[in-house]
Design a protein that fits this description.
Pfam families: PAP2. Keywords: Membrane, Signal, Transmembrane, Transmembrane helix. It is found in: Membrane. Belongs to the PA-phosphatase related phosphoesterase family. The chain has 178 residues and is mainly α. The protein folds into 2 domains: 107 residues, no CATH class; 32 residues, no CATH class. It is built from 8 helices and no strands. It is elongated, with a radius of gyration of 27 Å. The model has no long low-confidence stretch (mean pLDDT 77).
Length: 178
């Protein structure tokens, strides 16, 4: 059970750091930013046409943190739990799949509610999901690019065959050495 709590903590912390850094760097306004900037609904501008916000400064600062959505770590948590509870070990326990899909369901429901409540744009939710699944895609591609054990064994056998059979060796002319 300790590893489950460690996985939850790790996924939340890592994703929190990544998404907060992106939120501070991008600063995309939330859909309800107008009401954060002008709580009474009356907008103000200076002589040059620049907006003068008269809302609470903390609320306005939080209004610039829409992109990306922060619950993306639950996708990583789902993959982590998938490995820890050994979902695909052919033992047929449906409860294992429920444990794995629970974080994804929670993240989906939170994302839909945030878009519905005008706290995030749908693009923010989509980008948050990509951040959650991005590490999986990266490491999966890295794993597929590595040679398999069978390919490595075949290559080693071919090298041994070349070393043991002098007729198969390349002579100096074929190698290009003069």
């Amino acid at each position: 059970m300790y590893t489950v709590y460690t996985g939850i903590l790790f996924s939340v912390l890592i994703t929190g750091v990544i998404t907060d850094a992106i939120k501070d760097a991008v600063g995309r306004p939330r859909p309800d930013f107008f009401w954060r900037c002008f709580p009474d609904g009356k907008d103000f501008y200076d002589q040059l046409g620049n907006v003068i916000c008269h809302g609470d400064s903390k609320v306005i600062r939080e209004g610039h943190k829409s992109f990306p959505r922060s619950f993306s770590g639950l996708g990583f948590l789902s993959l982590y739990l998938c490995g820890k509870v050994r979902v695909f070990d052919r033992k047929g326990h449906i409860a294992k799949l429920c444990v794995v899909f629970l974080p994804l369901l929670f993240a989906s429901l939170v994302g839909i509610s945030r878009v519905d409540d005008y706290w995030h744009h749908w693009q923010d939710v989509f980008a948050g999901g990509l951040i959650g699944w991005g590490p999986y895609a990266f490491f999966r591609a890295l794993e597929e690019s590595r040679p398999t054990i069978v390919e490595t064994n075949v290559l080693c056998e071919e090298i041994e065959e070349l070393d043991n059979n002098p007729d198969l060796r390349l002579n100096d002319v074929e190698i290009g050495i003069r």
